[in-house]
Structure formats: structure tokens, C-alpha cells
Amino acid sequence: MLDRWLRNETDSELWDILASVALFSAIPYNYPILSALYHGLQGEPAIIGGWLIYGAVFAAMLVVGVRLLNTHIRIRAARFAFASLALFLTSRNLKSALLPDLKSVPVSVGALIGTIGVVLSYYACTRLTSWEFTRVRRAVLLIVFFGVVWPLVQICLSRPIRIQMANVFGKTPTAVLILDEMDSAFGEELKTAANSSRVSISEIAYVDSETVRAIPAMFGAYLGGSSWYCAPITLCGSSSEIFSFSRLAFDQNDDVHITGYWHPYCAASGWESCTQSKFPSTSAVDFAIELFLALPLINRVSAIRDKDVELGRQRASWKYLQEATMTAALRSVFWEIGGVLISHVALPHPPGPAPDSGIAIDYRANVHRASLFVRSVYQKGVQKWGSNFRLVVTSDHPLRRQFWCESTLYRSDPSCHLRTLRPSERSTGRVPWIVMGLPTPVESAPRSNQNIFLPVR
Ligand SMILES: [Zn+2]
């Protein structure tokens, strides 16, 4: 049977089935597959294994479905599967190219586009000759292939970003803590906790309220208002900038140590030591199920998912990550040999220990945990290097109150519906820039957290 299929490429459904499997597997490529790889949401074996299972299950369903039909309809059915998948991918890519900020399309518009797609697919598989259809198929596969390869070519052609820490922080042992989601309103609390005699405390603007774009901007890559995962460990942005940690090069003489999460920091080069804390991984089968549930239409019906289990998992993974990022910072090789420690810590990023008591109380609890952590880091540095040690505390963005109020974690929080917040709950809309110990060679605080690791601001 396989022989017969292979011998007669233009007139068989095998190629349409194979091409459909390729297109179907391409649907979650950027998100959630590249996203999971980028953020370390799953271990690589679970991601690759889950993706293979997802593709194989679809292939099996398609083969069985098509084989059940009689020969005459079979070829059309296989063609139909391919044409509708091709149109789906085209419309989705057009949407993200033309309307990058639109998160989801209204159901009525989606239904209209879907109907047009079905009509076009039907037309393509009934009116086109075998040879014409084969050419369409080859062209579509070539375009999809090009779409996957092009960002990789771009990243190879892009100029590496060279970071020289000595120009920003001098030669003194310096720890830079990026406390995720730290509002400058709590700067005093951090300062008091560390109990430092030499401290300068400032509030600075932030460049983007999403960690995924704020951190690259600190290293000199401004991605614009929106970004997407366009190749392994690579982000493409609406500013037409493309950013990969693999193009980030630290000066080896600077003894840079990195500990962090949410970004593949260790893909950079020139560092002395590096730890990326990752989320606890699930199995390949679980990830495959996640991929199916994330499919369009199915994700609209995914209310079948147990929200309590989902919430419990979310809380547990963040708790794990918060501890892991603090431990990684305190165990860095930096504490033995000095240099510059850059530490991206998952605090006071919600959720905290008590999400049920509301976003304000829960966030305050995390700020408190963060301030205790700042104290441990400062004390450790002073014990080791005395007055030669410098600690810089800043953040990627302040608390995203709106975002958290809309999340399932705090949906029942009554304060989320209040228009006016108590003064203690209002955000300053800025992030802290606190320097404890020696002042930085660049005298004044930066205006914003953009380019803070570059010598020229
Ligand atoms: Zn963040």
C-alpha cells in the first residue's frame, strides 16, 4: 500500500496526510512549544516528547479517518484536511502580522473567517487538478519552512551585544538584584531591612510591564510593544528587533555571574557562572494534552479543565520558583570570587502565601519576603567584602494589579472592583533603583531601567 502511494505522488492521499501532519504540528510551534522552551516551563524531554505524541496522535486519527472513507472521497478528505489547515495557519499569521496587539478575535468574526476557510478549502479540493493541488501543497510547505528558518538566519546575521560591566559598576564586587514586579513604593522597606548606612534610593521609570520584554531592554534590546517566540530561545518584537541571549556576550574579565528564571540567561556567552531556575516539569503525555487543549476552539471549551487543580499547580510552581531563585542567588560562585552578580528573583511577583486574602495583602507578604532576602544578600556581601561591597536593587516593572485582578488567582478579591485604592495600595508606576554600599561609577540613577547594563545610557 505504501509503495502504491509513493509511486504515484500526485494522485495519492499520503502526501496530503503527511503535509497535514506537518501543518498541524506547526500550529503550537511558536506558542506554547517555543514559549515553554524559552521560559523553562517544562524540561526539554517533556516538550519534545509531548510534541511528538501530539503529532503522532493527530497522524493516527487522520489515517484512520481517511481509511474509513471510500477511495473516491478519501483523496478529497485528505486534501480538505491539508487545505483547511493551510488556511488556518495563513489567517493566524496574517492576524499576528497585521493586528499584533489583538489577543483574541471575537467569536462572530472567527466564525465568518472559518466559514470562508471551509468554502475555500472545499473549492481547492474539488476544483483543482491533482497537479495543481500538488504545486499548492509544495508552495505552502515551502512558505512554512521559510517561516521557521528565517528568524534563525536573522539571528545569525544580527550583531552581538557586548556587555562590559566594568564600565557600569567598576571593579568592586557588585550584586544586582532584579526583584520581579517590585513597586518603588516599597523602596523604604527594602532599605530599612538591609540596615545599610550608605544608601541612595531613587525611583526610575520602566520600559515595559512584561518581564519578557523588560529584561532584554535592560541589556539593550528594545522589542517594542509586543513580542513573540520566533525561534528556539529567540524573541521577535514589533520594533522589528530580534533578540536571543545567544547573541549576548559578557566580557570575560568582568567575572559575571547570573542566576535567574523566565529567560534562557545561560545561553549568553562570557559569563563566569550561570543558573537558570526552571519550573517543575510534567510528563510528555501531560504536555501533549496541554498542546491539544491549547488548540483554537478546544481552548474555548477548556472549562472542562479542573480550575482548582490548575490553580493549585500554579501556586505550587511559583512557590518552588521563588525559593529556587533566592537559593540560586545565595549559592552563586560570585560569593567566592567576586565580580558582578546579576540575579533575577521571582519575588515579590505574585502569588504569595495567601492569595485568598486578596492581591494587596498577598503582595505585601511577598514584598516582606523580598526585603528579608535583600537583607541576607547585603549581610553576606558585607561579611565577605566589608565596605567594598555594593548592592543594587531594581525591578523589571511594578505590580501589574490589573493583570492579577483578571487572573483566576485573585478573581474573588473584592478590592479588584474598587476604583479608588487606599494610598498604601497605589502603585507609583515606577521601579526602585537602590544602591547600598559604594555609589556606582555612573553618578546618578538611570532615568529608566532600559539599557541599565550598557555603559552608555
Ligand atoms: Zn516581571
Blueprint of the fold:
Layout: H1 2-7, H2 14-26, H3 29-39, H4 44-67, H5 71-98, H6 107-127, H7 130-157, E1 161-163, H8 165-169, E2 174-179, H9 187-194, E3 199-204, H10 211-218, E4 227-231, E5 234-237, E6 242-244, E7 248-250, E8 256-261, E9 273-277, H11 284-293, H12 307-330, H13 334-337, E10 340-345, H14 359-385, E11 390-394, H15 401-406, E12 431-437
Parallel strand pairs: 1-7, 2-10, 2-11, 8-9, 8-10
Antiparallel strand pairs: 3-12, 4-5, 5-6, 11-12
Helix pairs in contact: 2-4, 2-5, 4-11, 5-6, 9-14
Largest pleated sheet: 7 strands, mixed
- Uncertain stretches: none
Distinct small molecules: zinc ion
CATH topology title of the largest domain: Alkaline Phosphatase, subunit A
Classification by helices and strands: alpha/beta
Mean pLDDT: 90
CATH architecture of the largest domain: 3-Layer(aba) Sandwich
Rg computed from alpha carbons, rounded to a whole number of angstroms: 26 Å
Outline the structure in words.
The protein has two domains: 2-157, no CATH class; 161-280 and 305-437, 3-Layer(aba) Sandwich (Alkaline Phosphatase, subunit A), CATH 3.40.720. 49% of the residues lie in helices and 13% in strands. It has 15 helices and twelve strands. The longest helix is centred in the N-terminal third of the chain and has 28 residues, at 71-98. The model has no long low-confidence stretch (mean pLDDT 90). Bound molecules: zinc ion.
